[in-house]
Amino acid sequence: MGWSEELLAFHEEIAKYNLGPLWDVIHEIITREPVETAVPYLWKWPVIRERVMKSGQLITPERGGERRVVFLENPGLKARGFRAAATQTLYVGIQLLLPGEIAPSHRHSQSAVRFIIEGNGAYTAVDGEKIYMERGDYILTPAWTWHDHGHEGSEPMIWMDGLDSPFVQLINASFFEPHAEKRQPITKPDNYSVKRYGVGMLRPLGDRHHGYPSPLAVYQWTHTWAALQNLKAFDPDPFDGYAVQFINPANGQSADPRIDGVMQLLTPGMHTRAHRHLSSAVYHVVQGSGYTVINGTRFDWEKGDFLALPAWAWHEHVNTGSEDAVLFSITDTPLMELLDLQRVQEWTEADGHQPVKSVFEPLR
Ligand code: 1HN
After folding, report:
1. Protein residue whose Cα sits closest to atom 1 of ligand 1
2. 195 C-alpha to ligand 1 centroid (Å)
3. Which protein residue has the closest C-alpha to ligand 1 atom 5?
4. SS3 325
5. Which of 29, 68, 247, 323 has its CA 20 to 30 A from that of 271?
6. What pLDDT, in 10s, does the model give residues 211-261?
């Protein structure tokens, strides 16, 4: 940095007292823009599924520290020693539960959401309610609620877990408690919250429930699908196509206060305009095929794949297939908004499309 011998000696001298010179580090701390730590990345579904199924032969949920999960690890973060993170703030894992198994009850300060990928007959119990999981359902496990999973069916059950654990780790706010019993006591009828609050805009008269956590614990696929189909009567969002957010019906806010769940539909040929935001995301392809351009690199995707979108990365989506493409994603948007850090910027050149400079080659 061109500092004098005398100044360098001073730096060394104050370092002995655990003191530092701001002029030497200010541009590392206060960068003009976010620096790339997490990288854009894509995981192919067959690669994940094969390993998840293999884990079923090697470990049980109980021996596996409570859950049997293979998680996405962003190579950019892993290289910096930051483990089990798909983006700087978001964790995503793929969990397997086999018939008859139980993932024991516990609670933690991290928020968790789930998206059901395959199988049926398994439930997740949250705060005294058994929620039966079906493909396409979005399920909440709000921070500090007791939760355990059980499988009463006959086929392997696979779902995606999304947690804010990297963020919670960053601020050192992790608390964890195992339940005294493997299965928490069930105090409510099965699918209680859907029966009471599933329609969303109606609340049982006299119900005092409001605010946190969301009174609705599961957003069933039939409702999500109907909402997307109905949106197709209107103009799509230029950046996101036809997209819906899972909300807390009691307060209209994000269903989980720290993790947003989004389902978006791209009609055949649809090519969204590029933008970037501070919030990061992890996408899972529910159906269809296409690609996403992230910072000039093309990431081709098809059903089942996972895609990490880091903070402040330019991105646009294209449906190249002949059916509607559907992308599920989790984001840290509520967190960024809560912290008043969110920023959004539109790509203005070439009708909103980035030039494609390279094509990502995923591991297969
Ligand atoms: C957790 O509790 C679950 O409940 C899944 O299924 C993944 C990852 C980190 C910490 C807790 C679950 C998790 C987790």
Report:
1. 67
2. 26
3. 161
4. strand
5. 247
6. 788 999 999 999 999 999 999 999 999 999 999 999 999 889 999 999 999
| pLDDT at residue 65, rounded to an integer | 74
202-211 pLDDT, tens digit per residue, is 888 888 777 7
Q: Which domains does the chain have, with CATH numbers?
A: 35-351 (2.60.120.10)
Mutate to test the pocket of ligand 1, among 55, 60, 66 (most ligand atoms within 8 A of CB): 66
Alpha-carbon span 333 to 259, nearest angstrom = 7
What is the rounded CA–CA span in Å between residue 274 and residue 14? 47
- Rounded to 5 degrees, φ, ψ at 326 are -125, 125
What is the Cα–Cα distance from 331 to 265, expressed in whole angstroms?
Answer: 17
Q: Which atom, in ligand 1's list, is nearest to the CA of 148?
A: 4
Q: How far apart are CA 13 and CA 317, in angstroms?
A: 53
Question: What's the average model confidence in pLDDT over 50-78?
Answer: 94
CA 335 to ligand 1 center in whole angstroms: 20
Which pLDDT band, with edges at 50, 70 and 90, does 1 fall under?
low
Cβ 327 vs Cβ 283: under 8 Å:
yes
Peptide bond before 213: cis, by omega within 30 degrees of 0?
A: yes
153 burial (CB, 10 Å; 0-12 / 13-18 / 19+) is middle
Pairing between β-strand 297-302 and β-strand 358-359 as defined by DSSP bridges: parallel
Tokens 């968790």, located at residue? 112
Collapsed DSSP state (helix, strand, coil) of residue 363: coil
| Interval 111-129 mean pLDDT | 96
Q: Is 95 in the pocket of ligand 1 (CB under 6 A)?
A: yes
Residue 200: predicted pLDDT: 79
CA dihedral 44, 46, 52, 53 (to 10 degrees): 180
